[in-house]
Amino acid sequence: MLERDRRKPGSWATTPAKRRRILDAALSCFDERGIAATTIDDICAAAGLHVGSIYHHFAGKDDIFETLARDAMGDYLAGVVDALAGGRSSPDSIRRLVAFHVRWVEQRPALTRLMLSWEETERDRPSGREHYVQYSEAIGAWLRREARAGRIRRMEPDLYSTLLMGPLMEHARQRSAGLTSASPQTMQRGLAAGLRRVLLSGGDG
Amino acid sequence: MLERDRRKPGSWATTPAKRRRILDAALSCFDERGIAATTIDDICAAAGLHVGSIYHHFAGKDDIFETLARDAMGDYLAGVVDALAGGRSSPDSIRRLVAFHVRWVEQRPALTRLMLSWEETERDRPSGREHYVQYSEAIGAWLRREARAGRIRRMEPDLYSTLLMGPLMEHARQRSAGLTSASPQTMQRGLAAGLRRVLLSGGDG
DNA sequence: GGCTTTTTAGAATCCGGTTCTTGAACTATA
DNA sequence: TATAGTTCAAGAACCGGATTCTAAAAAGCC
């Protein structure tokens, strides 16, 4: 029934490549049908493999999802940290952060969706908090340093992540749901301006 | 196997009450086990009914979930609109909005979780955008009015929701995951201050 | 009290994820 | 190049949970 791509003997891919192929297949399924709606069979068909093989490489659907999501999150976080660290001043770091974020979201819609969904599902699990903590840590170091130097408004640590991540994640959500009519450039400028006003010292208390 | 609460003949509840009982049962299950993990049987046990009866009142698990989530969202939105409309000035409206939000999240952890999860799952569905649009509309009217009067910084409409909803929803997420150590009062003050800086006119462009 | 409609019980069904068994392909070693 | 051990693929079997279906009890109505 399913059109499977049976290879002739002798052309067996090496393990990491096969793993990759499953992940890629899953990613495109997740992206086009939604995460809950894709079945293992869908992934089988897309990867040209049978259930057994998939379960040989992964513990299950969740494992595949988590692997993809974890990678996506890791990639995003690395970019965030780089952007912040690479700025030559606080405003510059903020500009770079927002520029990176908007570009990432624009260029990786599937990964964006994955990252956002993960956020949701992870919360219920034992390991749930992990990513959140990771995110906070990633930004925390930079924020603490800048705040200590007086370049960034001093406030309750919890507020930093709320006020920084909030707009960024909300933007990602809107964008991945196709709800923004404004251009990426406009959003980028607006987000940067907003974050500057919230974070940088000066003005009313 | 399941301990069902069989009522004696003659004590049958009226329809809306029965519906309510199912919803309440489901809400507590969702809350204590997580949404994905609660089975229909769990809800049956909690409501003291059998599958058949539940399917008589609702189309399925999703229907129950959506009903609860829609109600939660409706309640929240109504409060938001009230808060904004009731302020005697823009800063006052913002203060009221944040105060309402923080209180709501504190007092209704189960509904908060539901609302946030709905956001996630809804995106994939045909009717997906609906709630988002609803949210934007709810705040949109107030924002447009204030902006036209010059009391609120003029910006791309999409940015309003990003910059307003972003921090609030992020706060709700953190809170419902038990990740804030700061007191509600602190968060409330901080959020209000942040939103004021972003939204109110004046200062750098 | 008999008739219709609503609600319930619970068995039957269906669907999708996971497990298990078998065998084929690869690897290393002699 | 046979051989033992290991990894990978196939696909049937299994299992749990959502949904559907049928019959019967309760409620409403005359």
Question: Would you kindly provide a written description of the structure presented here, covering whatever features stand out?
Answer:
- The structure is a homodimer of 205-residue chains.
- Chain A is an all-alpha fold and 205 residues long.
- Chain A has 9 helices and no strands.
- Chain A has helices at residues 15-33, 40-47, 51-57, 61-86, 90-107, 109-122, 130-148, 157-176, 184-199.
- The longest helix of chain A is centred in the middle third of the chain and has 26 residues, at 61-86.
- Chain A is elongated, with a radius of gyration of 20 Å.
- Mean pLDDT of chain A is 87; it is low at 1-12.
- Chains A and B meet through helix 6, helix 8 and helix 9 of A and helix 6, helix 8 and helix 9 of B.
- The structure holds a DNA duplex (30 and 30 nucleotides).
Describe the protein's topology.
The structure is a homodimer of 205-residue chains.
Chain A: H1 15-33, H2 40-47, H3 51-57, H4 61-86, H5 90-107, H6 109-122, H7 130-148, H8 157-176, H9 184-199
Helix pairs in contact in A: 1-2, 1-4, 1-6, 4-5, 4-6, 4-7, 5-8, 5-9, 6-8, 8-9
Chain A binds a DNA duplex (30 and 30 nucleotides) through residues 9-10, 12, 15, 18, 39-41, 49-53, 55-57, 59-61.
